[in-house]
Amino acid sequence: MAEKMNQQVHPFAQVNKQPRSDEESGTLTSDQELKRKKRIKLAIYIAAFAVFQTIVILVFALTVMRVKTPKVRLGTDVTFQNFKTGTQASPSFDLSFTTQVGVKNSNFGPYKFDSTIATFMYEGVTVGQVTIPKGKAGLRSTKKVTVTANVNSNALQSTASLGSELGAGVLTLNSQAKLSGKVELMFVMKKKKSAEMNCTMTIEVSTKAVQSMNCE
Protein backbone atom coordinates (compact mmCIF):
# COMPACT_ATOMS: atom_id res chain seq x y z
CA MET A 1 0.00 0.00 0.00
CA ALA A 2 2.78 2.32 0.89
CA GLU A 3 4.56 1.39 -2.27
CA LYS A 4 1.58 2.46 -4.27
CA MET A 5 1.44 5.72 -2.42
CA ASN A 6 5.10 6.29 -3.10
CA GLN A 7 4.71 5.77 -6.78
CA GLN A 8 4.91 9.04 -8.63
CA VAL A 9 1.89 10.00 -10.57
CA HIS A 10 2.88 11.23 -13.96
CA PRO A 11 0.57 13.75 -15.60
CA PHE A 12 -0.82 12.94 -19.01
CA ALA A 13 1.36 14.07 -21.78
CA GLN A 14 -0.04 17.15 -23.40
CA VAL A 15 -0.82 16.97 -27.10
CA ASN A 16 1.44 19.26 -28.95
CA LYS A 17 -0.70 21.68 -31.07
CA GLN A 18 1.53 23.46 -33.44
CA PRO A 19 0.16 26.75 -34.73
CA ARG A 20 -0.49 26.96 -38.47
CA SER A 21 2.20 28.56 -40.43
CA ASP A 22 1.61 31.82 -42.32
CA GLU A 23 1.86 29.89 -45.58
CA GLU A 24 -0.97 27.51 -44.65
CA SER A 25 -3.20 30.37 -43.44
CA GLY A 26 -2.54 32.26 -46.63
CA THR A 27 -3.47 29.22 -48.72
CA LEU A 28 -6.78 28.77 -46.89
CA THR A 29 -7.62 32.45 -47.26
CA SER A 30 -6.80 32.32 -50.95
CA ASP A 31 -9.04 29.26 -51.48
CA GLN A 32 -11.94 30.93 -49.67
CA GLU A 33 -11.53 34.08 -51.71
CA LEU A 34 -11.45 32.04 -54.94
CA LYS A 35 -14.65 30.23 -54.01
CA ARG A 36 -16.32 33.52 -53.12
CA LYS A 37 -15.38 35.00 -56.49
CA LYS A 38 -16.70 31.92 -58.27
CA ARG A 39 -20.02 32.23 -56.44
CA ILE A 40 -20.26 35.91 -57.36
CA LYS A 41 -19.44 35.17 -60.99
CA LEU A 42 -22.07 32.39 -61.09
CA ALA A 43 -24.67 34.73 -59.60
CA ILE A 44 -23.82 37.36 -62.24
CA TYR A 45 -24.19 34.77 -65.04
CA ILE A 46 -27.56 33.64 -63.70
CA ALA A 47 -28.81 37.22 -63.39
CA ALA A 48 -27.57 38.08 -66.90
CA PHE A 49 -29.28 34.99 -68.34
CA ALA A 50 -32.53 35.89 -66.57
CA VAL A 51 -32.43 39.42 -67.98
CA PHE A 52 -31.60 38.11 -71.47
CA GLN A 53 -34.44 35.60 -71.32
CA THR A 54 -36.87 38.32 -70.22
CA ILE A 55 -35.80 40.55 -73.13
CA VAL A 56 -36.21 37.66 -75.60
CA ILE A 57 -39.70 36.92 -74.28
CA LEU A 58 -40.69 40.60 -74.53
CA VAL A 59 -39.34 40.92 -78.08
CA PHE A 60 -41.08 37.68 -79.06
CA ALA A 61 -44.37 38.88 -77.57
CA LEU A 62 -44.15 42.32 -79.21
CA THR A 63 -43.13 41.09 -82.67
CA VAL A 64 -43.82 37.45 -83.44
CA MET A 65 -46.91 37.02 -81.26
CA ARG A 66 -48.38 40.42 -82.06
CA VAL A 67 -51.21 40.03 -84.58
CA LYS A 68 -51.51 42.82 -87.11
CA THR A 69 -54.48 43.53 -89.34
CA PRO A 70 -53.83 42.43 -92.95
CA LYS A 71 -54.25 45.01 -95.72
CA VAL A 72 -56.41 44.60 -98.81
CA ARG A 73 -55.71 46.67 -101.90
CA LEU A 74 -56.95 46.86 -105.47
CA GLY A 75 -54.13 46.51 -107.98
CA THR A 76 -53.17 49.30 -110.37
CA ASP A 77 -52.61 46.89 -113.26
CA VAL A 78 -56.08 47.03 -114.85
CA THR A 79 -56.83 45.51 -118.24
CA PHE A 80 -60.07 46.60 -119.94
CA GLN A 81 -61.93 44.10 -122.11
CA ASN A 82 -64.89 46.39 -122.69
CA PHE A 83 -64.84 50.17 -122.43
CA LYS A 84 -67.93 52.16 -123.41
CA THR A 85 -68.80 55.64 -122.19
CA GLY A 86 -71.40 58.17 -123.22
CA THR A 87 -71.04 61.88 -123.72
CA GLN A 88 -71.51 64.83 -121.41
CA ALA A 89 -74.97 65.34 -122.86
CA SER A 90 -75.87 61.65 -122.57
CA PRO A 91 -73.61 60.27 -119.83
CA SER A 92 -73.24 56.54 -119.23
CA PHE A 93 -70.57 53.85 -118.86
CA ASP A 94 -70.26 50.12 -119.38
CA LEU A 95 -66.91 48.63 -118.44
CA SER A 96 -65.42 45.18 -118.13
CA PHE A 97 -61.91 44.81 -116.74
CA THR A 98 -59.50 42.42 -115.08
CA THR A 99 -57.40 43.40 -112.08
CA GLN A 100 -55.80 41.93 -108.98
CA VAL A 101 -56.78 42.19 -105.35
CA GLY A 102 -53.74 42.05 -103.05
CA VAL A 103 -53.99 40.71 -99.50
CA LYS A 104 -50.85 41.76 -97.63
CA ASN A 105 -50.10 39.76 -94.48
CA SER A 106 -47.28 41.12 -92.30
CA ASN A 107 -47.74 38.54 -89.52
CA PHE A 108 -45.41 35.66 -88.61
CA GLY A 109 -48.13 33.20 -89.52
CA PRO A 110 -50.52 32.58 -92.46
CA TYR A 111 -53.80 34.48 -92.84
CA LYS A 112 -56.70 32.35 -94.05
CA PHE A 113 -59.69 34.32 -95.28
CA ASP A 114 -63.18 33.40 -96.44
CA SER A 115 -64.82 34.24 -99.74
CA THR A 116 -66.35 37.73 -99.90
CA ILE A 117 -67.88 40.26 -102.28
CA ALA A 118 -66.08 43.37 -103.52
CA THR A 119 -68.45 46.18 -104.44
CA PHE A 120 -67.80 48.89 -107.04
CA MET A 121 -69.66 52.15 -106.55
CA TYR A 122 -70.17 55.47 -108.25
CA GLU A 123 -70.97 58.24 -105.74
CA GLY A 124 -72.27 55.70 -103.25
CA VAL A 125 -74.41 53.76 -105.72
CA THR A 126 -73.49 50.15 -106.43
CA VAL A 127 -72.58 49.75 -110.09
CA GLY A 128 -70.94 46.32 -110.00
CA GLN A 129 -69.76 43.45 -107.84
CA VAL A 130 -67.09 40.76 -107.98
CA THR A 131 -66.36 37.71 -105.85
CA ILE A 132 -63.03 37.37 -104.04
CA PRO A 133 -62.58 33.62 -103.46
CA LYS A 134 -61.32 32.25 -100.17
CA GLY A 135 -57.59 31.83 -99.91
CA LYS A 136 -54.50 32.08 -97.77
CA ALA A 137 -51.80 34.72 -97.56
CA GLY A 138 -48.56 33.18 -96.30
CA LEU A 139 -46.53 34.58 -93.44
CA ARG A 140 -45.12 38.01 -94.25
CA SER A 141 -46.26 37.83 -97.88
CA THR A 142 -48.92 39.15 -100.25
CA LYS A 143 -51.57 36.98 -101.83
CA LYS A 144 -52.73 38.28 -105.22
CA VAL A 145 -56.15 37.25 -106.50
CA THR A 146 -57.14 37.94 -110.12
CA VAL A 147 -60.76 39.09 -110.57
CA THR A 148 -62.86 40.25 -113.50
CA ALA A 149 -65.41 43.00 -112.86
CA ASN A 150 -68.35 44.31 -114.88
CA VAL A 151 -69.61 47.77 -113.99
CA ASN A 152 -72.22 50.00 -115.63
CA SER A 153 -74.33 53.07 -114.93
CA ASN A 154 -77.73 51.39 -115.19
CA ALA A 155 -78.48 51.80 -111.46
CA LEU A 156 -77.75 55.55 -111.36
CA GLN A 157 -80.81 57.69 -110.64
CA SER A 158 -79.04 60.90 -111.55
CA THR A 159 -76.28 61.32 -114.13
CA ALA A 160 -75.51 65.03 -113.69
CA SER A 161 -72.21 64.41 -111.88
CA LEU A 162 -71.33 61.67 -114.33
CA GLY A 163 -71.85 64.08 -117.22
CA SER A 164 -69.50 66.59 -115.60
CA GLU A 165 -66.83 63.92 -115.06
CA LEU A 166 -67.07 62.56 -118.60
CA GLY A 167 -66.88 66.13 -119.88
CA ALA A 168 -63.58 66.44 -117.97
CA GLY A 169 -62.40 63.18 -119.50
CA VAL A 170 -62.35 61.06 -116.32
CA LEU A 171 -64.44 58.46 -114.51
CA THR A 172 -64.10 57.85 -110.76
CA LEU A 173 -65.08 54.55 -109.17
CA ASN A 174 -64.85 53.40 -105.57
CA SER A 175 -64.31 49.78 -104.52
CA GLN A 176 -64.98 48.32 -101.09
CA ALA A 177 -64.64 44.87 -99.54
CA LYS A 178 -64.27 43.22 -96.15
CA LEU A 179 -62.33 40.03 -95.60
CA SER A 180 -62.95 37.83 -92.57
CA GLY A 181 -60.36 35.28 -91.55
CA LYS A 182 -57.88 34.01 -88.98
CA VAL A 183 -54.17 34.50 -88.41
CA GLU A 184 -52.38 31.33 -87.30
CA LEU A 185 -49.32 31.64 -85.06
CA MET A 186 -46.99 28.80 -84.05
CA PHE A 187 -49.48 26.33 -85.59
CA VAL A 188 -51.57 26.40 -82.40
CA MET A 189 -52.75 29.95 -81.83
CA LYS A 190 -55.52 31.35 -84.04
CA LYS A 191 -56.86 34.89 -83.87
CA LYS A 192 -59.72 36.31 -85.89
CA LYS A 193 -58.89 39.32 -88.02
CA SER A 194 -60.98 41.32 -90.49
CA ALA A 195 -59.37 43.32 -93.28
CA GLU A 196 -61.14 46.08 -95.18
CA MET A 197 -60.54 47.49 -98.64
CA ASN A 198 -61.51 51.03 -99.61
CA CYS A 199 -59.95 52.18 -102.89
CA THR A 200 -60.77 55.02 -105.26
CA MET A 201 -59.86 54.52 -108.92
CA THR A 202 -59.72 57.37 -111.42
CA ILE A 203 -59.90 56.30 -115.05
CA GLU A 204 -58.80 58.48 -117.93
CA VAL A 205 -61.41 58.06 -120.66
CA SER A 206 -59.28 59.10 -123.65
CA THR A 207 -56.47 56.61 -122.92
CA LYS A 208 -58.73 53.96 -121.34
CA ALA A 209 -56.22 53.58 -118.51
CA VAL A 210 -56.12 54.04 -114.75
CA GLN A 211 -54.86 57.51 -113.94
CA SER A 212 -54.60 57.00 -110.19
CA MET A 213 -55.43 54.50 -107.43
CA ASN A 214 -55.77 55.61 -103.83
CA CYS A 215 -56.46 53.10 -101.06
CA GLU A 216 -57.11 53.87 -97.40
From TrEMBL:
Region: Disordered, residue numbers: 1-30
Source organism, top-level taxon: Eukaryota
Position of the signal peptide: none
Keyword Iron: no
One Pfam match: LEA_2
TM ranges: 42-65
Domain Late embryogenesis abundant protein LEA-2 subgroup: 101-200
Name listed for the protein in its UniProt record: Late embryogenesis abundant protein LEA-2 subgroup domain-containing protein
Origin species: Castanea mollissima
